[in-house]
Fold these 4 entries.
Entry 1:
Amino acid sequence: MNDRTGRLIVVSNRLPIVVEREGGEWSARPGSGGLVTALAPILRGRGGIWIGWPGTSETPFLGDFLRRAGGEAGYDLRGVYLTAEEERAFYLGFCNEIVWPLFHDLLDRCNMDPSYWASYRAVNARFAEVVRASSEPGDIVWVHDYHLMGVARELREGSGSSVPVHFFLHIPFPPPDIFLKLPWRRQVLEDLLRYDSIGFQTQRDRHNFTHCLQALMDDATVRGKGRVITATHGPRSVRLGVFPISIDYDEFARESATEAVARHAWEIHSNLPERQLILGVDRLDYTKGIPHRLRAYRLALERHPDLIQKVSLVQVVVPSREDIPEYRALKAEIEGLVGEINGRFTQHGWVPIQYMFRGLDRGRLLGYYRTAEIALVTPLKDGMNLVAKEYCACSLEENGVLILSEFAGAAAQMRGGAILVNPYDTEGVGDAIHRAFRMDADERRARMRRLRQTCRNQDIFWWVGSFLRAAVSRDLGDFPPRGGEGPSRIAPEAEGRG
Ligand code: ADP
Ligand code: F6P
C-alpha cells in the first residue's frame, strides 16, 4: 500500500488462519466461518494489515510464523494473544455464551455470567493497543464483529488515538425486547457509538439498533434515510449503513468450472445414480437449525413416498466451539436424529442421509455445491449466510434449487429466486423439499439465473466499495493490489513451519 493513501487495517477476533501445534511443530489451516471467506479476498495482495487472534492460547510468540503466512497472502498478519483464561471468559464466555445467542434471539441459551464482562473489556483493550501500535495517520481501521464492540472506546480513552475507526456487525442485531435483557446493554450501545461508522447486514438489523438506541438513550437522535443514516449522541455523530456482505463470486464460479471440481462433482453423483442430492453445509451451531431441518426431511420422507430412493441428503457439519456444552449437546442431538432417520428409512442400496462431521477441502466442497440439485439453508437466524451465495455461484448448470430460511440475512437479496421457508415450520420445510424435488428444469433455470445475477452484481468487492464510499468517501481502487494478484488464498501446506 502506498503511503499517500494509507492502508486498510482489518481487525477481527480471528486471523484468517488457525494456528495449531502438530507433533511439536506449528502449522496453520484456513479459519472457517463467513467472516474469513468474505474478507480474505479484499486484503489479498493489497498490502494491508489483518489483526487478530491466531486461535491458540498455547504461545504468545508466533511473530515469525505469522510474518511468513502473511507474506504468502500479500498482507501483514499481527497477532493478539489470549491466555487460556481469556479464551474461556472472553471468547467462549462473553462472546459465545452471551452475545452470540442473544443477538440470534435465543435468550434461553444465554449464560449471563457476570464475570465474563471484565474479560471482554480487557481483551478489547488489548486489541486496541495492537491497533494503536500498528496504525498511522491516513490508515482506515475497520473492526469486525461482536467480539470487538468496545475497541473504538478503548482506542479513544485508553490510548488517546484519534484515527477514524469503523465497525461492521456480521451477525444480526436483535430487537429491543431481546437486547434490553442484556445486563451490559447501555455500555454496549455507548461503546458502539464511539465508532465513526457502523455497518449492518440488513435494514432489519439497523432498524433494531436504532430502536434500541431510542429505548435506552433519551438524548440520542437518528436522522436521514436510505443506505446511510446518522445517529447523534451528545457531541458524537455515527454513520449507520446497510451493507449485505457477500463472496468473491467470480472466484467461486471460476474454481467451480475447473477440471478438478468437475471430477469431484462427477464422483459424488456417480455414487448416487438417478438421485437428487440435497445439500446442507453448516458450522456446528444451534443457530443453523440442523435438527429442525432433519425433522423436516423425516416428515417429507413420511409424507411423500416418491422421495424414497430418489433423494439423498448430504449434511456436512464443520466442527465449531466444541468447548461450549451447548455445542456438544447439539452434536449429540444431530447424530441421534441422523441415526434414527437412517435406521428407519434405509433400504438396500439407499441411505437417506450421508452425514459428515469435518471440514471439507475446498475442491470437494465446491464439487458438492456444483452437483447438488437442492440446497437446504435453513438457519433459525443468521447475519447473512454465505453458504447460500456460494451454492449459487457454483451452480454452473443452473439446475440447483435454493431453499432458504426467511430469517437468514441473505433472504433480503435472494427472495426472488429462492424458495423461502420458516425453519420452525416442519411441514412447510418438508413441502418445500418436495416442491424443489419436483420442480421442472425451466423453473429451476429461471430461478437460479436470478440468484446468480444478484450474487454476481452484489459481490464482495461491491460490498467493500459500498462501505468505503459511504464511510470514508474512498473506493477499493484507492487500494490496488501490489505487484499482481497475490496468491489466491493462504495454503497451509505452503506456509512452512514455525
Ligand atoms: P458462519 O459464518 O456462521 O459460519 P456462513 O454461511 O456465512 O456461516 O459461512 C460459512 C463459511 O464456512 C462459508 O464460507 C463456507 O464456505 C465455509 N465452510 C462451510 N463448510 C465448510 C467445510 N465443510 N469445509 C470448509 N469450509 C467450509
Ligand atoms: O460469521 C460469524 C462468525 O461468528 C465469525 O465472526 C466467526 O469468525 C465465525 O462465525 C466462526 O466462528 P468462530 O470464530 O467462533 O470459530
Entry 2:
Amino acid sequence: MKYGFFDDANREYCITTPFTPLPWINYLGNDGFFGLISNTAGGYCFYRDAKLRRITRYRYNNIPNDIGGRLYYIKDGNTVWSPAYRPAETELDSYECRHGMGYTTFNSTKDGVNAKLTFFVPLGDACELHRLEVVNNSNETKDLTLYSGIEWCLWNAVDDSQNYQRNLSIGELEVIGSTIYHKTEYRERRNHYAFFTVNTEVDGFDTDRDVFLGAGRAWNKPVQVENGKSGNTVASGWYPIASHSIKVTLAPGEKKSYVFQLGYIEVPRDQKWESKGIINKKPAVELINKYNSDAAFEAAFKALKDYWDNLLSIYHVESKDEKVNRMVNIWHQYQVMVTFNMSRSASYWETGIGRGMGFRDSCQDLLGFMHLIPERARDRIIDIASIQFENGSTYHQYQPLTKRGNADIGGGFNDDPLWLVACTAAYIRETGDTTILDHPTPFNNVEGSEKPLMEHLRRSINFTINNKGPHGLPLIGRADWNDCLNLNCFSEEPGESFQTFGPSEGPVAESVFIAGMFVKYGKEYADICDYVGLKDEADSIRAEVEKVKTATEEFGWDGEWFLRAYDAYGNKVGSNECEEGKIFIEPQGFCTMAGIGQEKGFGAKALDSLYKYLVNDYGIEILAPCYTTYHVELGEISSYPPGYKENGAIFTHNNPWCSVAATVIGDAEKAFDIYKRSCPAFLEDVSEIHRTEPYVYSQMIAGRAAVHYGEAKNSFLTGTAAWVVVDITQAILGVQPTLQGLSIKPCVTKDFGNYSVVRKYRGAKYDINVIQDGSGKGLVVDGAAVEGNLIPAVEGKKEYKVEFYI
Ligand code: BGC
C-alpha cells in the first residue's frame, strides 16, 4: 500500500493523506537555519544547533507525535480548518503535501476555499518563509479569518523541557506592528532573538499561549480561533507563542497571498539595545524587508530550485530502471545533504538534545557528499580533525555550535580515527586538492597545537598500529562502528551507559571489523603518501597493512565467514562456535571491500554466507541468530529484543558495504540485489509495513526475529545515505573518482542494460555511455580506445565523450 507517489519531474514526493503511518518529514535549510517539517506541517526549527539554539518547541513522546509546529487555521463561518490538516484536524475536501528539495508545500480545499502553504528557508538567510495563498473557488463571497501560530522554545532545548521552576518566569516578547519578537534571556547573556512576522497589517495577535488556547484546550481548538478573535496579549513568562490574525474577504474567484517570516537574529554585543530594555531591531527589519512581497518570495524560491538543479547536475544517470534513476538523481543525493547538515543530531527520532555530530558519522556522511560541495566538505574535515587528541584517538562526538568535543562520552571508540583517513582520501580523489593536507589543524581545539592535517591522518593510522591485541588485530576499545558491541564495559546496573561504564578499554578485546578498515584505509593512506611524494612512508604503511591482513586471514576467518571480534576473555564473537551471534554482517562487508583473503576466495564465501544466514526480503540483517539473553561481556548489542537495532535488524548502513564488497569480487548480481532490497523506492508498495518515508533510508528495518518484521525506524539520519551513493554511483555504475582522475569501472548485470551518466568532475563535464554489446572493448574517450579504466585528463579540456563497452 502507498500513501502517495513520486513526482520525479518536480523532484517531489507527493503525499496524498495526512494519515501516514508515522509523520513523513522533510528538511528545510542548507546552512545555519534549519527546520524539520512533517506532512502535517509539524516539526521544529533551530539555528545551527538543535540543542543550544532551538527556536520553536517540539514535544517528544507527544500524542499524536506530530502536534504543534507551524500552525495555520482558516476560520470560515463556524468551520475552522488547517491546510496541512493539523492543527485543526477538520476533515478536508482535498489534501496534498509535497516534499521537495529543501521545501514543502500543501494544497488543500475545504468548502470551496483552496489554500496553498509553501515553506522553505531562503539561501543564505537565517529565516523560514511561509506563504499562505487562499482562493475562493465558491460562488459566494467568503469572509475568512486566517490565523498563524508558532510556539517559542526558550533556546536551550534541554532546559526548556526540564527547568520549569525557572522557565515559567523568563519568557519575554515585544510586539511592533505585525512582528512579534521573542527575546527571552536577551536581557542577560544572550545576544540573539527571533521574530515571526507577516507582510500585511494584522487584525490582532496573541503571544500568551494560555489566552490563545483557552483553559484546558490544545492546538486543535484554540478558543481565540473558535471565537474569531485575538487577545493582543504580550506574554510575560509562562508559555510565549506568536500568532497573528488576519481578516480577509474574498469575492468568488478572488485570491490573496501572505508571506510570513520566522527569523533568527544575532546582534553584536555592544549593539544589543535600541533603548533601555528595547532590543535592537535594525537587522531584523532589514531581513523582514528583504522578503516582504510575493515577488521576493518567488525569487528566493526560484533561487533555491536553481541551487538544487545545479547540485543535482553533478551526477545524473539515465538507465531503463526508473527507480534507480529516481533515487540516484534525486533522493540519495538529497538525503546525503541532510545527513551532511545534521549528522545524527536532529530529526523526529534523534531528539537534537542528544549526541550532536558524531565523529565517525560525519566522516562517513562526507563520503557521499564530496561531489556536491567539496568546499564545505573541506571545512567539515578540518572541524572534525580538530577534535582529535594528540595520540591519534578522537572525541566520539562534537556539538555543532561550539565545535567542541563532547566530554560526557569522551573517546575510546577505536574505529573513529580511521574514518578521518577515509573522508580525506575521498576529498582528494574528488578534487585533486592536496593543499588540505597542509592545513594547520589543532588537536582537541587547543590553540597552539596546530599541525598539518596530514599529521592528523598519520596519527590516525598509527593509533591502530600502536593499539593491537594478542592476535595482532586492532583493539576495539569502547566499541567500533557498532556502538553496541561493548566488549570491555561489563555494565550490570540499569541506567549506566553501555559504552562508558567500567574500564571501557582493555588489552585483549579485538575487532576484525577495524582490521578490515585498517587494511582498506591504510592502503588509501599509503596511496596519498605516494601521491604527495612520501614514498618511504607509503612503503612502511603498506608493510603494516600486510601484517594486519595476514593476522586477519589467520585469526579473523572462521571457515565460511569472517569473525566479528575477540572478547575481553579472548573468546570468539561471530563464530560458528557461538550459540547465538554466529555471523555478523560488518566484517563480511569491510574485509571483502579491503580485499582480505581475496586469493583464497574468502570474499565470495563470506557473501554466500550472508545470503545463507542473513538475507531477508528487505535487506541483510546485522547478525544471526539474535541474542535472546543479555550478555554482560557483549554489552548493549544483546540488550535489544531479537530482531531490533543492532541485535538482528537490517541496520541499513552496512548493507551498501556488502554491495560494494560484491563489486570488489565482481559479483554484479549480488551487488544490485543488495542495493535493491533495502532501497526505499523499491519498498514503496509496502509502505504500510515499512511505515517510514519511501524516499529516504531509515536507520533500521526490523529483522525476521522481530515481532514487527519489516517495520522501519529512525528515518533520514543514517550513514546509509552516503554509503549508498558510493555504492550505486561509484561501485555499481562505475564512475569512480581516483587520485589520478575519473575512472570507469562498471559492475552491472546484463539485465541492467545500457545507461548513461553525466558527471562533472574537477572542472570538466564527462558524458559517459556504458554499452553492453558483449564486445568487451572497454574504454573509449573521444573516439579513441584507452587501455585500462582511467580517463586520461587533458589540461584545460572541459568536455569528454566517453564510452565503455562491456
Ligand atoms: C550511530 C553510529 C553507529 C551505528 C551502529 C548509529 O546510531 O550513530 O555511529 O555506527 O549506530 O551502532
Entry 3:
Amino acid sequence: MQRLGSNASSFNNADDRKGTVSSDAALPGARTNFARRGLRASDATNELSDRYVRVRHRTEALAKPLRPEDMVVQSMPDASPAKWHLAHTTWFFETFLLSIHSPGYRVFDPGYSYLFNSYYEALGPRQPRAQRGLLTRPCSIDIVAYRRYVDGHVRKLLQYGISAETEDLVRLGLAHEEQHQELLLMVDAVGRGGRFKGMSGGPFELGATAASFAFDNECPRHTTWLQPFEISDRLVTNGEWLAFMADGGYARPELWLSDGWTLVQSEAWNSPLYWVQTPDGWSQMTFRGLRTVETDAPVTHVSYYEAAAYAHWASARLPTEAEWECAARAGLLEQVEEVAWQWTQSAYSAYPGFRPAENAAGEYNGKFMVGQVVLRGGASVTPAHHSRLTYRNFYRPEQRWMFSGVRLARDLNQSGESSELTAADSDFAVDVVAGLSAREKTLPPKYFYDAAGSELFEAISRTPEYYPTRVETALLRQFALEITVGIPEGAVLVEFGSGASDKTRVILDAAPQIAAYVPVDISEDALAKAAAAVSRDYPKLLVAPVAEDFTDAIRLPAAAHGRVKVGFFPGSTIGNFTEAEALRFLRSVRQLLGDNSVLLIGADLVKDEATLVAAYDDVEGATARFNKNLLARINRELGGDFDLDAFDHLAIWNAELARMEMHLVSRADQIVNAAKHTFAFKAGERLHTENSHKFTTKSFADLAAQAGWSVSREWISGAPQFAIFSLTPESSDPFHLNRRNN
Ligand code: AVJ
C-alpha cells in the first residue's frame, strides 16, 4: 500500500501532463491524451480505491450539516445547490468511467443525464444552471442512493485491476470531485443572515378562501392595505442574537416594551430559553443534549418581548401578519415553515367579518382572541402540511418554550426606497445616521466646516471672548524667529488642516529658507484659493496642495521628497480629537515626516472655567450659530428637517476630562427626519457636537511621548494661556514606536 505522499505526487504528475485542471473542461479531449501504460500493480489499485473512498466520503461530510431543505437552495444563479453537486460528481463517474469501462453497467436512472450534466454539449440537453435550484426531485435520499450505487460499481471495477487509461479517469473524477467540494463550501445558503426584500404597498388579500381546509380564524379572506415595506428573507441567527446580547440587549430598558422590561428583571432573562453559559461560551439544551450555540442557525425560543427588543436594537421592527403573508406568497421568503414560528407585530384578533365555526369547533380559536400575538410560518416540529401561508398561530407575548423565531421588517418610504444607506450615500450621511442613532447622540466636529461653517468660525475668532486664534497668532508673531530658527535650507512645510493659510504666512515670513509648502485640507475650494494666494505672495515657494482629510493616512507629493519636513498644526485642533485619535494622528505624522523632522503644534491650555465657557458661548451668539450650522448642513445636504430654533446651544467645562464640550439641547420632545431616517429627541436630550481638550504642558508632553515625539521647546502666552510646542522625534530607533504602544 502506498503512502499518501507518493499518492499525492503521482496525482501531480498526471496534472503536469494536462496543464491546469479545469475540471469538466479537461474531459473528452483529455482522455485521448493519456498514454497507455498497461495494467497497474494491485498496490496502486488499492491505493486508488482507498483514495476514492476518502474523497467521496469527504464530499458527504461537507454536506452533512445541511438539512434536506438546505440542499435544494440555490443562493444565486451561478452557484449550484448542494444536492446538485452531490449528484453531478456521481454522474461524472457514471458517464465517463462506468458507462464506458464497466461492461454491462446500467445507469442508475436515465433521467439523471439531463439533470446532472453540467455543460457537456456532446452529451445532449441539460437542466439550465440557473434553474438547478428548482429540482425538488430526485430528493436527497435518492441522491444518496445514487452515490452508493455508483460507488459500489467503481469499487468493483477497481478491485479487478484497471488499465492506465481507466486509472487516469478515476483520478480525474476525484480531482473533479475535489473541485466541487470547494464549490460546496461556497454554498452560502446555510449560514447567511437575512437580506431585506422590498415590496410596494397597496391592496392585499389576506386570509384563506373556502376552497381548501383552514381554521375559522384564517377566514374570511379580505382585502387589507399595505404600506411599502421590506422584509428579511431569512430569520435572525444565533450569531446576530449574540451580538445583541454583547451590546447589552438584555440590560437596556430603552429597547424594551414596558411589560417586557419588567419580565427581564423579574425573570432575570439574559438569553433565549435553554441557553446556558459555559466556560467555552454559550450552549443550548436541545433534544440531543447540550450543544454549543450554532451561530449560523436561526435563534429560537424567544418571547415576543425579546423579539421586539431585538428588532428595536436592529433599527427594524417585526412584520405585520399581512406583510408576512404577502411576502411569503410572493416567494420572497426563505425559512418559511421549516425552522421556527415567527413573531409578527399583529395582535391576534378577528378578521373583519369573522364568524366562529358553528359547532363545538367554534370554541377552538375565537375565544382566545385577546392578549395574544400572531406567529406565522411553521416549525421544524410542525407536522407536514399542517402549516399553510394563511395559518395563524398565537401565543402570549411572554411565552418562549415553543419554537419561536424572529424575522425583521422595515418601513419603506412612499417611493419604495429603503432607509438603508448605500455606497452612494456620503460619509456625512453615514456618520449622521450612526451618530443620531446612538444612545448618546453625537456628531463628529469635522462636519462643522462646510463653507458656511468656516465663515462662522472666522466670525467666532473675531469675538472678544474667543481668544485662542488671536493669542496663538500673537505668540507665533512674537517668537517667529525662535520657532523657525532650526529649520534648514530647502525644508518643506506640511500644514494639516491649512484652511485659509493665514498663520502659515507668519512662519513663511520668518523662515525664507523654507522652499516648499504642502497645505493639506479636505475643503478643495478653500485649499485651491489659499494655495493660489500663497503662490502669488511667495513666488519662489513651491506650493503643492493635497486635498485630503488630514486624519487619513496621506502621502506627500513629489515636491516634498528629499527635503527636511516641518509639520505645522496650529489652532488647537488637536484638542478636538479623543486621546486615541490624537495618538493615531501624532503617530502617523511621525511616520509621514520621518526621523529628521520637526512638528509645530498649537494647543490651548487649561485655565479658569469662566474664561473657557465664555470663549465657547460668546454673547453675540457666533458660537451658537456655528454649532447650529451642523443641523443646517444636515438639512441642506441630507434632506433633514431640523428646526434650528428647537435646539439650544450649550457649552460646558468638563473638568474631569479637561475639555470644553459643545452640545445642542432639544427644547422639546420632537421627531426629526434626516438621511432617510427618523430620530426622536426627548425634551432636554443633548446632541454632543464637539470636544475641545485643554492641556497642561505636562499632559501635552505625555501625549506626544506616547506617539514617539518629545517636546524640544515650548512657547506659552500670558493669560489667557495658549502654547506652541516644537516636537522632534523622540528616537530614530525604528522599533521605538512599537515598544511604546506595546
Ligand atoms: C478650530 C477646533 C480649534 O475647538 O476651539 C470654536 C473650534 N469650536 N468654537 C476649538 C471651535 C467652538 C475650535 N477649533
Entry 4:
Amino acid sequence: MASDKESSRISGFYKMPVEKRISITSEKAALTTEEERLLGSGGGLGIEEADRMIENVIGTIAYPLGIAANFRINGKDRLVPMAIEEPSVVAAASNMARLMRGDEGIRVTSTDPVMIGQIQVLDIPDIENAMKNIIEAKAELLELANQQDPVLVRFGGGARDIQHRIIQTEAGEMLILHLLVDCRDAMGANTVNTMCETLAPVVNELTGGRVLLRIISNLADKRLVRAECFVKSEDLGGEKIVDDVVAAWAFANADPYRAATHNKGIMNGVVAVALAVAQDHRALEAGAHAYAARDGHYSSLSKWSKDDNGDLVGVLEMPMAVGIVGGVTRTHPTARLALKVMGVSKAAELAEIMAAVGLAQNLGALRALVSEGIQHGHMRLHARNLVVMAGAEGDLIGKAVEALVESGEIRFDKAQEIVKRLKG
Ligand code: MEV
C-alpha cells in the first residue's frame, strides 16, 4: 500500500488553487525550490535553449501542463503530467484511473525496446544470391552497426538481427533489409539511422544492387507495450454501462470511421504525456495508426469485454517508441521535471505509463459517449471561460458557472446577463 506521501490518490485536486496543486506535486515528487518555481513560470523553455533545438526560432509556445491523479500502475502510484490544450482530457484520465486502482491497479508489460531500421535495395541482378550473401555476412554487418554506438552496446543494447523481405512495388521488385536494434533507454532514431547509413556501402557490395533509403521505421511493432485494467460494474454505473462500452468498442473494431476517433481518444492520453516529457509524438501517432491497420483493416487499438461477473476488462496493445536519454527529454527543463514527477528511470517505464493513460483515456471517452455525451464536460469548462470573459471574479465564478450550466444556454450573451445579475 502506498504511503500518503507516495499515493497518487488526491481527492478534490481539481478544486484546489494552482499554487496548492504545485505544492502537493512538489511534496510528492520531492522537487527542489527551483523546480517548483519553474512549474508556475509558464513554459520553462528559455529562448536560447529553443534556439539550440530547431532552426529559425522566433519564440516558444506554452501548453497547459496538468497532473492526472489516481494512477496506480503495477502496484505503484504515479502522478502523471499531461500537456494538452483540450479540456476534459486530464479530468477523464484521473476519474477513470480512480476506478482502476483495485489490486495492483493497471497492469502493464512491454517487450524489449527493439526498433527497426530499413534499408531499401534496388536493381539487384540476382536476388537469391544477394540474400545468401547478406545472411553469410550477418555477423560482420551487426558488428559494423554496433561500432557506431559503443555506449548503447555497453548499456546492453545494440544491433541484434538483420531480416529481409522481398516486396513487389510499382517501381519493381525490391529487397528490404530490416536492421533490428535494441535501443534500451533511447528512442533510437539517431542510432538506427546512423547504423543503416553505415551499412549501405557494404550492402551495395554484397547485393550488387543500389541502396536507396536508409531510415528507421515508425511502425515499431517490435517495441510493444500492453496495459490491462479491470473495472467493477458498480463503479462504472452498472452492467448496462459495461454492455454499452463493449458495444461502443465493437463499433470501433468493425468500422474504420469510428476506429479513427476511438484511437484518437487513446492518443489524447498518450500524446499528452508524450508532450509533457518532450517525446517525438509524431512518431508515436504514426506507429499507433499503422499498428491499428497491421492486418489490412484499420481497427481499434484497445479491446473491451465483460467478464463472468459482469465487470469490465480492458486491454490496450500498441507500439511505444519513447526514450529518456539522448533526446530533448533531458535538456528541456520542464520535460526533465515531468519525468521526475512520474518517478521514471527507464524508457520502458515511461512507455508503460503512457499505455496505462491511453487505456484510461479510452474508457473515459467511451463511458461519457454511452451516457451523457462528451459535450457535458467540455461545456462546463467553456462556461467557466465565458463567465470569466464576462467579468466574473473570485467566488462569483463558481456561482455564475452553475447558473450558466443550469440555464442550458452556454453562450457569451447569457454569461454576461448572469454575471451582471449576480454582481447585483
Ligand atoms: C475527443 O478528443 C476524443 C473522443 O472523440 C474519443 C472517442 O470518440 O472515443 C471523445
